[in-house]
Amino acid sequence: MSSLLEVRGVSKRFGGLLAVSDVSFSLEEGQILGLIGPNGAGKTTLFNVVNGVYKADGGTISFLGKDITGSSPDKVVHLGLARTHQIVKPLNDLTLLDNVTVGACFGREYLDLKAARAVALEVLQLVGLADRAGMIARSLTIAGKKRLEVARALAAKPKLLLLDEVLAGLNPTEVALMIDLVRKIRDGGVSVFMIEHLMQAIMSLSDRIVVLNLGRKLAEGRPDEVVHNPDVVEAYWASRTSSTS
Amino acid sequence: MILRRPFFYIILIIAALFVYFPLRGNNVSLREDLILVAIAIILASNLNLMIGYTGYVNFGHIVFYGLGGYVGLYLATVRGWHLVLSALVAGLVVSLCALLFGLLILRLRGAYFALATIGVLQAVQAFVSNFDPWGRSTGMYLSFESYQPLGGAMRALWITYYLVIAVMALSMILSLAIKNSKFGLGLFAIREDEDAAVVLGVNATVYKAIIYSVSAFLPAVAGALMFYKNGMIDPSIAFEFMLSLEGIVMLMLGGQGAVMGAALGGGLYEKLRSYLLTSPTLSNFHLVIAGGLLLLVVLFAPGGLIGWLYRLVPRARKVIE
Description:
CATH topology of chain A: Rossmann fold
Strand content of chain A: 15-25%
Low-confidence stretches of chain A: none
CATH class of chain B: Mainly Alpha
Shape of chain B: globular
CATH topology of chain B: ABC transporter involved in vitamin B12 uptake, BtuC
CATH architecture of chain A: 3-Layer(aba) Sandwich
Largest sheet of chain B: 2 strands, antiparallel
Mean pLDDT of chain A: 92
Number of helices of chain A: 9
Order of helices and strands of chain A: EEEHEEHEHHHEHEHEEHH
Helix content of chain B: over 70%
Structural class of chain B: mainly alpha
Oligomer: heterodimer
Helix content of chain A: 25-40%
């Protein structure tokens, strides 16, 4: 049986910079796969290649056994691969309900407007934004916008959800709520592939973790294996002493 | 679906009033005033589909109107087709052209797209000015006999008027229908953030090309009707860049994104313009005033008249769309 997501030897180059280099891994159905690495390791670029925002310069990506290398993001969503953005992209002048309805309308099930609204309300309930459904997205706090990102992606009824740093910028209470939400999503039958900097969170959530450094896959395995991997420790310490950010 | 929107009936009432007032007492001068108002509403409403709904500023929107006028007049005079058929075919031909232009220039975004739309206008104007069958830069004239199929010039002018009012009503109904559809939601998503829209599954390339083409149809039909009524066409009046710019002023004034905003802006601006143009002291100032108005709107009421109304009476959003 093939995996849900299969990434084979994927590379992405920006001019002289090899942002992602020959990365391979696979993700099994029902799993939460974590993606970690120092700043600039190529995590978000890898996400962008997987969901089709960028075209891979090499390698193949298959999802549900279909080759999706080079497919545009809107086609990838229809197959059931949705994502959130690290830098939130709310549809500012639309209500939360409309934001999430867009996700449902154009997602995997390609619902009509009426059915999409019903799904949108359900999802807003799930992420705890139902009481603000009529608000304009612009007026949300950052924590609210992060949840809106998740809601929109969920409304597409994906098989696999890519979460790009949904915990960044949240306070401890909000982090706890979001971790809870990610578990709920997985228990609802959606596999999750997530980038996260918050180590405790990713360690406790993930079934497996992939570590990237300078565009290359450094390590892969269970969370406890990965933290004790000498290469990983080295990469994190080295980057922390040499970078200012 | 659309029959359940209260605003649908408001549109019908507006159209009925446009028909009723000039008809009462056979008031020809009122009819001539109102036909210009209706044309302004048609242009502003369809421009709204691009600017207000999709977030793409089209500076060359008038090209659809002028091209429709040329195709329509050519079919009606040279080919001797019936007016209604000529106008509909003109609409289809121009929509098809728009689809081709759109696929070419809609790869551009923001200011680059806006510039390209000016290019389209200039290119079409240059082409028509050198196109022999359409009379190059002297244009085409309608022979008086062309009004015969409609029962003579007098009747033909009334019939044209009703048809223009019908196109006006259709423009507003089209805007309303799109606003309340899945297609419209996709357009709004593109307007707010195109990259996000694509990641959410909206096929932005196709959506943009379709709306650009759709926004060309009714203005082209209106152009065919209007130039038939006027009896002549030439490149400088068919492709008047200033009118294209004024369309944008109308939208900003009335409130982009709202069906009523486009209509209100179009109607009010046209009334104001004809008042200024006929006033002996102000006749050369109408563009100065248009510029001033635009400045005031952008600075103090970015949502236009409708945005201002929505802020005063938030519930109005549900009725006046």
